[in-house]
Write a structure and sequence with these properties.
Elements lengths: L6 H9 L9 E4 L7 E6 L4 E7 L7 H20 L10 E2 L8 E3 L2 E7 L4 E2 L7 H17 L18 H14 L9 H8 L2 H13 L3 E3 L8 E4 L5 E4 L6 E3 L1 H12 L17 H14 L6 H28 L11 H28 L3
Antiparallel strand pairs: 1-2, 2-3, 3-6, 4-6, 5-6, 7-9, 8-11, 9-10
Helix pairs in contact: 3-7, 3-8, 4-9, 6-9, 7-8, 7-9, 9-10
The structure holds 2-acetamido-2-deoxy-1-O-phosphono-alpha-D-glucopyranose (GN1) and magnesium ion (MG).
C-alpha cells in the first residue's frame, strides 16, 4: 500500500480548513501502518491532517461518524472530571463537515495537542503502568457509551476464525506467487488448533465492551512537560470488543525486546517486569469492575494479539502487500515471523503470566 500523496492535493484539502501551503508547513506524523497522517503548522495554529485509507476503511463516513460520537462522549466525561486525559476531536471544515472528499480520497482534520510526543517502545515499568492506566481509563470512560451506536468499521476485526479464513483464502489463490516463500509459517499457524479452540470457547462467554482495539504504545500522546500519557489517539477501530484484545495489544507492543518488524529473533525475549506493571495497572484502572472471567482472559489475549497480527501480516504478504504500508518486499513476512515468534514465547510463559495476573488486585 503506497503512502504517496502529492502537495497539490494536500493544498486543495487545506483550503477547506482556511489553510494553505503558502503559509503552513506540513510534516509526516507518527508511524501508522494504514492512514497517511501529517502535522500542519503555521505561526498561530497546528492541527493534524489525515488521509483515510479507502482500501482498509471501505466506508470512511462511518469512521468519521464513530469519531464524532466518541469524542463528544469523551469531551463530556472530561468536563465532568470523569476522564483525566485530553480529548481528541475532529475539526470541522469551513462548510461545517468533518470529512473532505477529494478526488476519490477522504480526509479529515483533528486537534493537535501541543508539546506532546509519541513513543515506540516502553522504557520502564513505571511508564508501562501509565500506558495501561491510560488505555484502561479510556475503556472505563466508555463503559456507559451505547455500543450499538457505533458502526462496525471493519467487520470481525479481532475475530480469529475470520483471520484464519482470510489466510486460507490467500493460500488457496496465492495471487502474488509468494506461498513457497512462507509455506512453513502457514503450516505453523494452521497447526495451532488447541489455541484456536481455546479462544473460540472463551469468546462465547466474555462480556462485550467498547474497546479501542489498537492499543499499541504509539497510540498514546505523552506530555513534554510531565512525560506522562496525555491523550489516547487513533479511535478508528474503537468498536464493541473484548478487553483481552486491548490488553493483548499493549503486551504485544510493550513487552517484546524487539520492535514489531525486528529480525533479531534469537535474542527476542518477554519483558516480565513490564508485563507485571501492565497487568497490575490495567486491572486497577477498572476499579473492581473487571469480571473474574475477563481477568482470566487477559493471558489468552496476550497470546492472541501477536498470533492474530502474525496471521494478518502473513496474509497480506501472500496477497502482495495490499493492506499494510511496507518499506520493502519482505517487510510483511518479517513482521509475521516476528509476531509468531513472540506468540510462541508468550505461550511458553503462559502459566507464569497467569500467576502474575491472578496475584493482581
Ligand atoms: C495498524 O495504522 P496503525 O499502525 O494504527 C492496524 C492494527 C495493527 C497495527 C500493527 C486498521 O494500525 O490493527 O495492530 O497496524 N490497523 C488496522 O502495527 O488494521
Ligand atoms: Mg490504528
Amino acid at each position: 500500500m503506497s503512502k504517496v500523496v502529492n502537495r497539490q492535493q494536500i493544498n486543495h484539502v487545506l483550503s477547506f480548513y482556511d489553510a494553505s501551503l503558502d503559509t503552513c508547513t506540513i510534516a509526516p506524523l507518527g508511524n501508522g501502518l494504514i492512514n497517511c497522517t501529517y502535522l500542519v503548522s503555521n505561526q498561530d495554529k497546528q492541527f493534524v491532517l489525515q488521509r483515510i485509507n479507502h482500501q482498509v476503511f471501505k466506508h470512511p463516513e462511518q469512521v468519521i461518524n464513530n469519531a464524532e460520537l466518541l469524542s463528544e462522549h469523551i469531551k463530556q466525561k472530561h468536563k465532568l472530571n470523569q476522564y483525566a486525559l485530553s480529548p481528541i476531536w475532529q475539526i470541522h471544515t469551513n462548510a461545517g463537515t468533518a470529512i473532505v472528499k477529494d478526488n476519490g480520497s477522504s480526509w479529515r482534520a483533528l486537534n493537535f495537542i501541543t508539546d506532546s510526543y509519541t513513543v515506540e517502545s516502553v522504557s520502564s515499568p513505571e511508564q508501562a503502568a501509565q500506558v495501561a492506566t491510560a488505555f484502561g481509563q479510556f475503556t472505563a470512560a466508555l463503559a456507559d457509551f451505547p455500543a450499538g451506536k457505533l458502526n462496525e468499521i471493519i467487520p470481525n476485526f479481532h475475530h480469529l476464525d475470520t483471520r484464519l479464513a482470510q489466510l486460507t483464502q490467500a493460500v488457496n489463490t496465492d495471487p502474488a506467487k509468494r506461498l513457497q516463500q512462507c509455506q512453513q509459517i502457514v503450516d505453523f499457524c494452521l497447526a495451532q488448533q488447541d489455541f484456536i479452540e481455546q479462544v473460540a470457547t472463551l469468546s462465547e462467554s466474555l462480556p462485550i465492551r467498547v474497546t479501542h482495539n489498537d492499543t499499541k504504545i504509539n497510540n498514546l500522546l505523552f506530555s513534554r512537560a510531565s512525560d506522562k500519557p496525555i491523550a489516547v489517539i487513533d479511535l478508528d477501530t474503537c468498536m464493541a470488543g473484548f478487553i483481552m484484545n486491548d490488553f493483548g495489544d499493549m503486551v504485544r507492543t510493550c513487552c517484546s525486546t524487539e520492535p514489531e518488524d525486528g529480525t533479531n529473533l534469537t535474542n527476542m525475549a518477554v519483558k516480565i517486569e513490564i508485563f507485571q506493571a501492565l497487568a497490575q495497572a490495567y486491572i486497577k484502572s477498572f476499579s473492581g469492575t473487571m469480571s473474574e472471567l475477563e481477568k482470566h482472559s487477559l493471558v489468552v489475549g496476550t497470546q492472541l494479539l501477536p498470533f492474530m497480527l502474525g496471521i494478518r501480516f502473513l496474509t497480506d504478504f501472500i496477497n502482495g502487500d495490499n493492506y499494510f504500508h511496507t518499506k520493502h518486499p519482505l517487510h510483511n513476512l518479517e513482521r509475521a515471523k516476528n509476531q509468531l515468534h513472540f506468540f510462541t514465547l508468550l505461550q511458553k510463559l503462559a502459566p507464569k503470566l497467569s500467576d502474575i495476573i491472578q496475584a493482581c488486585d
